[in-house]
Amino acid sequence: MIWQHCCCKEDVVTRGHHEAYSTTKYSVVVSAHSLMELPSRDSRLSVLLNLWQKTEDFLIVVEQGTKPGFKVVVEARDFILSLSTEESPAHVFAPCPHDMPCPRFLRGPYPCHFQVSYFDLSVGKKQEIKKELLSYIVIRKGRRKVDHDWPRVVRPVLKRHNHVICRMCTANGDLREVIFTKNRHGKTLYKCAKVTGWGDRLPVDLTPSVDSEQDSSHENFQDGSDTVKPD
């Protein structure tokens, strides 16, 4: 477990195990690749409860971007949100733009994960850029701020001739695929979609106009016939 108070090195506290009886709170609490090592669901939830009680602002859970890792992240997401009350509210800060049940988990079988790049730490040879898939959740204490309901891009962006395909998770708690073209959406929005990356939020408001769906890489995304407008 890593408990972090701020970005300054002297204010970062790390622990190999959680302190069950400490009353100290931290602005950012991180559990990275730890929950899957625990033997049972009860033990995971017990640790999560302890970490949440030590959280002042953000709780971050990171696991491998595999089916089991994603399942543990969803378990953590659902558990922490179940603790939210009117007096002590909480909401998902990232990656989900909503607090509803995860549509990727409900529909399966593909995990919601994102690709990260890093330099390996091998000694004695040239550093190489490695890539890994991670599943994560960031939950923040307090009410969700009323701001842009921008969707999150949850699959690699597909750049094709004269169009860009974005598969996104929306603030309505569903998955949508939108095909952006210069003629349909305008030059600015088309260029924005073109430079958007996997894991980014796309600054658009989605207004569904067609209810039909098509199979997109075995996931039920909307067929791209949505009405979208730049925010």
Automatic annotation (TrEMBL):
**Keyword field:** Iron, Iron-sulfur, Metal-binding, Mitochondrion, Transit peptide
Compartments where found: Mitochondrion
Disordered: region residues: 209-231
Query: Can you cite an annotated GO cellular component?
Result: mitochondrial small ribosomal subunit
Specify the domain of life of the species encoding this protein.
Eukaryota
Q: Which InterPro entries match?
A: Mt_RNA_Methyltransferase, Ribosomal_Rsm22-like
GO MF terms listed in the record are: iron-sulfur cluster binding; metal ion binding; methyltransferase activity; structural constituent of ribosome
Where does this chain mainly localize? mitochondrion
Q: Some GO term, biological process aspect, for this entry: which one?
A: translation
Q: Where is the composition biased (Basic and acidic residues)?
A: 215-231
Q: What does this protein do?
A: Mitochondrial ribosome (mitoribosome) assembly factor. Binds at the interface of the head and body domains of the mitochondrial small ribosomal subunit (mt-SSU), occluding the mRNA channel and preventing compaction of the head domain towards the body. Probable inactive methyltransferase: retains the characteristic folding and ability to bind S-adenosyl-L-methionine, but it probably lost its methyltransferase activity.
Protein name, per record: Uncharacterized protein
